[in-house]
Amino acid sequence: MKGLILKDIEYLKKEWILILAAIVIFSLINIFIGLGISGTQFVFSFVFAVLVNSSFSKDEINNWNEYALTMPISRKDIIKSKYIFSFIAFIIAIFIGTLVGALTNIMAQYGLTREHIAISSLGFSYILLGFIGALTIYTLIVFVNFPISFKEGHAKGKQLTYLAYFVFFILYSMIQKIFKLNLIENILKMPLVISLVFLIFSSLVILGSYFLSIKYFIKKEF
Questions:
Q1: Counted domains in the chain
Q2: pTM (2 d.p.)
Q3: Which domain holds residue 24?
Q4: pLDDT confidence bin for 116, thresholds 50/70/90
Q5: What's the gap between Cα 122 and its chain centre?
Q6: pLDDT tens digits, 41-54
């Protein structure tokens, strides 16, 4: 299974130009606009989530799963390796996001606006909320897509996932408009509680995603 994980990590390495470009672009944005550490964590979680999902496309183009099944590994090993790789990618994303956010905040410290200072100097509870929020976004992009891609293939899985997101945001916008809710404002009032809710939600989604992926992939015919 180690080889399966290394295979996907090698794919990430080949995308170093894209990752480097994202680092440069969002470093500049953070210096002049002020995303804050949580903001850069969100950004790089999204970037790496897209890269992780793209690894499915590479696998399909190269008929990787069919080839992998000729080796002495089980289908569960293929699933496990993908999830482990995804967690590794998330850790890398958070590390880069935190580093970029922290360093560019230091570089910009003499030119910060009051709003930027406020965002950058938030307490631990808000930093935790930013981290858990990044995990939640990553979970929705990556782990919701996994079982669909394992069952239907990456192309169809991506379409169905994006359709689900579109419907969700339409419903969210309608509910917010009808009931005049300010979700962001309410979240910031209870950062620790919301962090716990997001963590539980993400954990349940990941577990559900994992078991569904195993269920679908074991039955899949090549």
A1: 1
A2: 0.82
A3: 2-219
A4: very low
A5: 23
A6: 888 998 999 889 88
